Amino acid sequence: MKNKEIIIWHEMDGVGDSSLNFIESICRDLENKENLKFKFVQMNIVPFLEKLENLGQEKEKPDIIFIAQDMVTLEKANLSEVPEKYSHYMDTRIWDAMKYKGIQRGVPYLQGNHAVLFYNKKYFAQKPESWDDIKKLKKENVCNFSMDLQVAYWLMPFIYSIYGEPIANGKVIITTENTKEVQKFLIDLIRQGTLCSYSAISTMLEKFVSGQIACMINGEWLYEYLNKEMGEDIGVCQLPKIENMDMVGISSTVGVAFPENSLQGEKKKELDTFINYMLSKEIQEKWLVSHKRIPVNKQVLAQMDKQEIDKNVTICYEQMKKNHFLVNEECINDLWHTGEKILERIVENSNK
To answer: What DSSP string describes 262-310?
Structure first.
């Protein structure tokens, strides 16, 4: 009997996104163990989202998509409802992260997915734990600090830490007017020459690895890549304190979802095998130990709480526990759009 081919779509998030190779290796192992067959289709985020919004036009539709948590709000993708039988692998809060409008639309397999501060140890004798530590660095031809002022996600730690909760009663309550304190903080960093903006997944990474940027706010998922590229020079710490107050951002999950109700289709047995394998203690331990990511499996998390696997992963984990956990409100896209307008205002005013 010919194997049913399972088609996986995966968004490739720049050179630092090394997860795809690891996911492919997991699937190759599963092919050998369970006599399954997988086909990978990889693309950048823009075509990925466009294709999901127009799945009806695709000749070859995916059975599985790897997505960030908030992508379960893509109603046009007709995502399968996921049965509760997989929820026993993880705590309820993590499982519920991929609910939308009260319906489970995905399966989390990693958590965290949040911002931390990466720094180059060559430029700092001690961890830069405050903004004063970052500002006082004087190094010719080196940018003190970088963040991406084109993408609203990177603005969120400043919103939550300076402004506060941006959503109330299911609506976005931040505007360009009531976030002037946030805007001033970042504009001052730019005018002081402390902050330079680059794309988080391309130019910023290149300049940071080459030593042209001393520290940056970027995603914890980059740690394994940076560790391989920089070795002992890579440092990780929690987000810098603002006037002795802890800086907090947002954390979420990444997971798998099943477009066009594929989980209820002819490949449901094969997809069930895949889900159980991804959530198993064996694979979740590999994510933690080999790939330096924060798992969802509660048995593996219990081990992580008892012993330090990697001090930098522990730092990422501690930042995650401080953060606000993203909830898939219907207004989530409004939050990103509003954040983009605030960033546009920051860039515009910093040039005056």
So the answer is: GGGSTTHHHHHHHHHHHHSHHHHHHHHHHH--EE--HHHHHHHHHS-S-
DSSP H or E segment with residue 340: helix 332-350
Q: Is the pLDDT of residue 300 over 80?
A: yes
Of the chain, the end-to-end C-alpha distance in Å amounts to 69
3-state secondary structure of 167: strand
- Cα 26 to Cα 271: distance, rounded to the nearest angstrom: 14
What is the three-class DSSP state of 113? coil
* Pairing mode, strands 250-257 and 64-68: antiparallel
Q: How many CA atoms lie within 13 A of 84 on its CB side?
A: 5
Other C-beta atoms lying within 10 Å of the C-beta of residue 146: 26
pLDDT at 2: 55
Tokens for 182? 């946030």
Question: Who's near 76: CB < 8 A, 6+ residues apart?
Answer: 52, 53, 54, 55
For the residues 174-199, what does the mean pLDDT come to?
97
pLDDT above 90 as % of the chain: 85
pLDDT at 309: 80
Do the beta carbons of residue 12 and residue 43 sit within 8 Å? yes
Q: Report the DSSP beta bridge partners of residue 197.
A: 147
The pTM of the full predicted model, rounded to 2 decimals, is 0.93
The answer to whether residue 1 scores a pLDDT higher than 50 is no
